[in-house]
């Protein structure tokens, strides 16, 4: 729990520049310390998991990487260059795509319209400039198929898909639009066991396609299934950072469940039982 | 989609899991359905009740009534798909006519100059609505209610101040009146029956609105800002610009409508237009627009306007008391809404 920085450095392979690197990053909202001294590396073809309980600072961390908020201290390096992201658009242009919990999809719109929303391809010019509907339909189908999602009808409203399927469409969309880094905010939070499995498969598929993935979750089991490195957040600070071979699932689970606090709680409860 | 058990390679291009969608089922999925069924029912009803209803001249009258409303109902429907209301739309028509008339009269300018100034003023009011909405927090219901009250007051106030009475002076002897009348308020004779030119404007607006909605990027954005504003913003849709554009669309409709009002009656009563904004919304809702945004069609709103035209004139042809008109409209609204609701539930009940 204390050898935080050593672990991070040990995990980094020499000579490889991380796609995104957070170094000792802090963020304050007024006098509230939302995030302090957090470091994180995202490499191509790897999944970095950020684990933490509610209020641990996961959302703040995402917002900094996604360009919604700016960090107050420390440094954020993208492709080795120190950057300060001013807007989500800027982050997108640098290849960082964020899939939020609400997925940024419009439930009543067909899948293909959602897939291209905000970046619709057009053909023709002048007053006859129009969306290339055939291309959009075909591409949506093909891209989803490439991610292993076989959609029956791209014309169905996206709201009729299950939560896991919607998550997959959002991921496929980010991949198609050239994301190099994929930030996933609790992709399995509201899903059942089977659906979670489906989503994790697509997360792994994105990793295998060479993307760097930041997986935010509070489920250590899901994280350990796919993660290459793990950062644990607790009350805005980093309480642990491990490469995969440095930690076991049990240890991860124990820390997530509260670690020593859990032991205290057990003692307290046991002392109350007559 | 199914995650398990990949389907065996389909023969040819078709996917065996896709149940052959019957044309009927496809039709059921359209937002216009409720309004079309309603329109057919109303048509048959008045065909039986009123003998003169099926005559070509009667139909021309019905289409005229439908078009004057439809010119506004179509952009109002687009705005509703974009998730917003415009309660100022009714009086904006009057404002547009008043500006045009009074500018031409007071400046002794060519009528076309007044028409042009009116376009700018009307669009500016649309921009005002849009900017107020996107820059501040209150819902469009409140903001356009404010615009509605302000315009109602200004229509009366300015007209009395400038003309001394509640109506404008006649501009029929002014330069450019005839050509402007030809564009906005003429009649076209087809097969011995006179059709008002507003029908042409109406059809053109339906075509334009449908094109924008279904085949352009802007159309995609309109659905998106109405169906999920935050999601739209997150993927880079210019939410504010889209909404301001929609309010300008309503203003454009109000301009056409206002010019027609002025050029067909020559003078304008400054108190007119109050209450029409609700009728536009009724037409859009009958046409399948969701009151919460994100769903609907321009054609549906146009059919809603057609129903309105058939009922308002059908009652006259049936020689009933026209006091019953609002009652019929209310019944239509409720039935169409229930039908639309039911159809959408059916269409979306999957998973």
UniProtKB/TrEMBL annotation, chain A:
The keyword Nucleotide-binding applies. InterPro entries: AAA+_ATPase (IPR003593), ABC_carbohydrate_import_ATPase (IPR050107), ABC_transporter-like_ATP-bd (IPR003439), ABC_transporter-like_CS (IPR017871), P-loop_NTPase (IPR027417). Coiled coil: none annotated. Keywords: ATP-binding, Nucleotide-binding. Residues 20-260 form the ABC transporter domain. The keyword Nucleotidyltransferase does not apply. PANTHER family: CARBOHYDRATE TRANSPORT ATP-BINDING PROTEIN MG119-RELATED (PTHR43790), SUGAR ABC TRANSPORTER ATP-BINDING PROTEIN (PTHR43790:SF8). This is ABC transporter ATP-binding protein. It comes from Streptomyces alfalfae.
From TrEMBL, chain B:
Keywords: Cell inner membrane, Cell membrane, Membrane, Sugar transport, Transmembrane, Transmembrane helix, Transport. It is found in: Cell membrane. Its main location: membrane. GO terms for molecular function: transmembrane transporter activity. One of its GO terms (cellular component) is plasma membrane. The keyword Ligase does not apply. The keyword Kinase does not apply. The chain crosses the membrane at residues 33-50, 62-80, 111-133, 140-158, 195-214, 235-258, 278-311, 323-343. InterPro entries: ABC_transp_permease. It is a multi-pass membrane protein. Part of the binding-protein-dependent transport system for D-xylose. Probably responsible for the translocation of the substrate across the membrane. This is Xylose transport system permease protein XylH. It comes from Streptomyces alfalfae.
């Amino acid at each position: 729990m204390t050898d935080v920085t050593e672990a991070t450095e040990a995990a980094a392979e020499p000579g490889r520049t991380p796609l995104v690197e957070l170094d000792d990053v802090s963020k304050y909202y007024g006098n509230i310390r939302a995030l302090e001294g957090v470091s994180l590396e995202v490499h191509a073809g790897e999944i970095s998991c950020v684990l933490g309980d509610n209020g641990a600072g996961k959302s703040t961390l995402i917002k900094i990487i996604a360009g919604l908020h700016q960090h107050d201290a420390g440094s954020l390096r993208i492709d080795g260059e120190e950057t300060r992201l001013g807007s989500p658009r800027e982050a997108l242009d640098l290849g960082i795509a964020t899939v939020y919990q609400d997925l940024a999809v419009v439930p009543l719109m067909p899948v293909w319209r959602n897939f291209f929303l905000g970046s619709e391809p057009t053909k023709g010019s002048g007053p006859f400039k129009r969306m290339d509907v055939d291309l959009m339909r075909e591409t949506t189908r093909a891209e989803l198929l490439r991610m292993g999602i076989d959609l029956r009808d791209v014309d169905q409203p996206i709201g009729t898909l299950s939560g896991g399927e919607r998550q997959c469409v959002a991921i496929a969309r980010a991949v198609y639009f050239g994301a190099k880094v994929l930030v996933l905010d609790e992709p399995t939070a509201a899903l059942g066991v089977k659906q979670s499995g489906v989503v994790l498969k697509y997360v792994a598929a994105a990793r295998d396609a060479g993307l760097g993935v930041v997986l935010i979750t509070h489920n250590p089991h899901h994280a350990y299934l796919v993660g290459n490195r793990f950062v644990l957040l607790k009350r805005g600070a980093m309480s642990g950072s491990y490469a995969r071979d440095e930690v076991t699932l049990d240890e991860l689970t124990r820390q997530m469940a509260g670690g020593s606090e859990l032991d205290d709680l057990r003692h307290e409860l046991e002392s109350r039982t007559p | 989609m199914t995650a398990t058990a990949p389907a065996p390679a389909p023969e040819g291009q078709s996917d065996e899991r896709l149940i052959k969608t019957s044309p009927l089922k496809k039709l059921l999925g359209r937002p216009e359905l409720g309004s079309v069924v309603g329109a057919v029912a109303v048509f048959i009803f008045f065909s039986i009740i009123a003998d003169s209803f099926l005559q070509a001249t009667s139909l021309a009258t019905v289409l005229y009534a439908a078009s004057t409303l439809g010119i506004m109902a179509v952009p109002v429907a687009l705005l509703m798909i974009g998730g917003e209301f415009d309660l100022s739309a009714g009086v904006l028509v009057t404002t547009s006519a008043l500006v045009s008339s009074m500018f031409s009269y007071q400046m002794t300018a060519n009528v076309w100059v007044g028409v042009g100034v009116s376009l700018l003023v009307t669009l500016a009011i649309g921009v005002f609505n849009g900017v107020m909405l996107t820059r501040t927090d209150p819902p469009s219901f409140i903001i356009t209610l404010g615009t509605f009250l302000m315009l109602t007051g200004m229509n009366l106030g300015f007209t009395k101040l400038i003309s001394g009475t509640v109506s404008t002076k006649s501009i029929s002897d002014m330069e450019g009146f005839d050509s402007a009348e030809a564009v906005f308020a003429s009649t076209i004779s087809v097969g011995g029956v006179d059709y008002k030119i507003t029908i042409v404007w109406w059809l053109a607006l339906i075509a334009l609105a449908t094109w924008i909605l279904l085949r352009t990027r802007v159309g995609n954005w309109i659905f998106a800002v109405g169906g999920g504003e935050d999601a739209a913003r997150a993927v880079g849709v210019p939410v504010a610009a889209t909404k301001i554009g929609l309010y300008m669309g309503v203003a454009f409709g109000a301009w056409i409508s206002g010019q027609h009002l002025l050029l067909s009656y020559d003078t304008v009563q400054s108190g007119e237009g109050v209450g029409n904004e609700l009728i536009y919304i009724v037409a859009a809702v009958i046409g399948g627009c969701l009151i919460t945004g994100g769903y609907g069609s321009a054609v549906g709103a146009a059919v809603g306007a057609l129903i309105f035209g058939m009922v308002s004139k059908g009652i006259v042809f049936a020689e009933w008391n026209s006091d019953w008109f609002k009652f019929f409209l209310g019944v239509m609204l409720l039935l169409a809404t229930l039908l639309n609701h039911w159809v959408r539930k059916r269409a979306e009940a999957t998973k």
